[in-house]
Amino acid sequence: MIEKRPTILIVDDSPANIQALAQLLAGDYQVKVAKDGLRCLELASADSEIDLILLDIEMPEMTGYEVCAKLKANSATENIPVIFITGKNAIEDEVYGFELGAIDYITKPFQPIIVEARVKTHVTIKRQSDTLERMALRDHLTDLYNRHYLMDIAPKKIANAQRHKNPLSLVVLDIDHFKNINDQYGHDFGDEVLIGFSRLLEEFCRKEDVVARFGGEEFVLIIDHCDAASCVAKMKRLCADIEKLKPNGITVTSSFGVTSLQEKDTGFDELFNRADSAVYTAKADGRNCVRLQE
Ligand SMILES: [Mg+2]
Q1: Which of 51, 57, 229, 249 has an alpha carbon 20 to 30 Å from 2's alpha carbon atom?
Q2: Total domain count, the chain
Q3: Are residues 208 and 248 in the same domain?
Q4: 79 C-alpha to center of ligand 1: Å?
Q5: How far is the CA of 54 from the centre of ligand 1 (A)?
Q6: Distance 57 CA to ligand 1 centre (A)
Q7: From ligand 1's centre to the CA of 53, what distance in Å?
Q8: Can you give the residue range of the structural domain that contains 161?
């Protein structure tokens, strides 16, 4: 994966300050700017790629303190590190900034080398924590969600669907004769098949669906707001798309087991067991097909 340059958002009501900071940082970072707090909040919640915010405190309309408090109160922006950069140099001001959740505090007039060093340190820490989070939730080979994430999110999705009486379907799918692919073409080739297969699953599913690698060549999909009949129709299309994928020229097929949430269900295991047993039926019926177990 190519590492993109980190993105820094500079927020200041003074164009001269914005310019000085932007010039300092443009060599190493992607720089975005906002001239007031409202614009900062808009940019931060619309753009998930902001790695750090340099925030002035004294601004008309909304102060930097208010902006920081709002950023920290919103789950979409709470993890973006905030550094105050300000002419307010009393100890109480600095303490207050930290209480609001800022990670650092730089007073003006600033030393360029200090700003560069602190920004670099905090961006590095942010990137490391993003990587750790990713490693904890994602499968290393395919970058799909891992089993750990699935076991965490599935009960929440199920409880939510039951509470709101929304349909929810669960799919278990398994690549047919995957062992033969590994034996015949080698494990590196097998890995490429898994990666290509995973990209197809991700592209096929909607953003709100959960697409997870359950283990080996077995995958689980949680499809919200979708009843059994629509899910079966959808999976038949996916089954045909997989057959057409032909990674490195060989035909790969898969067997699908579909089930949907019922009122009596109490958790993930029941759904999983039904979908898993439908996979066995699909295998017994000659593979490369979709079977439903209600
Ligand atoms: Mg100002």
Answers
A1: 249
A2: 2
A3: yes
A4: 24
A5: 12
A6: 6
A7: 15
A8: 147-292
How large is the average pLDDT for residues 11-24? 96
The CA 81 to ligand 1 mean position distance, Å, reads 19
CA 108 to chain centre: 37
**What pLDDT score does 89 carry?**
85
* Residue 69 belongs to domain with CATH number: 3.40.50.2300
- The two structure tokens encoding residue 251: 């035909």
The pLDDT-based confidence of 155 (bands split at 50, 70, 90) is very high
pLDDT at 75 over 90: no
Task: Give the distance (Å) from ligand 1 centre to CA of residue 12.
Answer: 6
CA–centroid distance, 77 to ligand 1, in Å, is 22
Q: For residue 2, what pLDDT is reported? A: 58
Residue in 15, 70, 64 with CA at minimum distance from that of residue 42: 70
Q: How far is the CA of 248 from the centre of ligand 1 (A)?
A: 58
Q: Helix 64-73 vs helix 37-46: angle between axes, to the nearest 10 degrees?
A: 20
Last residue of a domain, one of 137, 171, 187: 137
Distances (CA, A) of 33 to 77, 124, 136, 221: 16, 21, 32, 40
Mean pLDDT, the chain, whole residue set: 94
Residue 171 has pLDDT above 80, yes or no: yes
